[in-house]
Amino acid sequence: MRAWLAKKVLAHNMARLRAGDYRSTLRLDAADVRFRFPGAIPPTRRLVLRNGQRVLLHFVHPDDEQGLKVLLDHLSPENRRLRFFTAACDLAGAARDAAHADGQRHIGLIATDGEDEVLGHAMARQSGAADAEVAVEVADAVHGLGLGTQLLIELVRLASQHGIRRVVAEVLPENREMLAVFRDGFGASERLVDGCVSVSFDSGAWRSAAVRFPIDGGAGQEGPHAR
Question: How far apart (Å, rounded) are the C-alpha atoms in residues 90 and 179?
Fold first, then answer.
């Protein structure tokens, strides 16, 4: 796995250097796998899902576009609808946008199986001076195993370190699992707006969510569909 990551890091850095960008290279730490982006504190999480499967979290980068497209292509029509509010959406465009997060106003995380398969993705996009909107999706095969919730916790933690104070999301009313995670884990407030549930909570709530939903995949809920 480290060899695979090292090759990915090297390819990313060489592309950046050829483009004259000397500031945003990634570094493979000698003690652990640590992705370094300017202005961001990277996650170094290795998660164990409730079925015992191990996954690796890291920042998204352009090389992940194809993997993200495969993830979205294989969502069931219902899961796609809950994520994008429609089953008919531009998946290629969504994957392209997700893969080109700048690490500043747009933060993206992915979870992989340690090889090439993308199992989940979470993003936070700054929508105001201290506000950010979040979205999460996970592969159907790992739905219900805690991955979406852990992605969300790590994402909100990073957003709070970027100066984000309030996190918002729009969720379909029938997406009870995601609403339960926001409500029970993050203490989110809810209001119905144009047929959608608008949720908001303080970014510091990631701490209580981490306690409510342990990282080892113990008791907790999984909700992969927030717009």
Answer: 25
pLDDT of residue 24: 35
The helix (run of H) or strand (run of E) holding residue 9 is: helix 2-18
Q: Domains in the chain, please, with CATH?
A: 1-36 (no CATH), 41-212 (3.40.630.30)
Q: Is the sign of the CA dihedral 46, 211, 39, 121 positive or negative? A: positive
pLDDT (0 to 100) of residue 11: 52
Provide the sign of the torsion angle of the four alpha carbons 81, 103, 156, 53, taken in this order.
Answer: positive
* CA separation for the pair 190, 140 (Å, rounded): 27
pTM of the model: 0.76
Structure tokens at 191: 């209001």
Of 104, 99, 117, give the one whose Cα is nearest residue 4.
117
Which contiguous run of DSSP H or E holds residue 148? helix 147-161
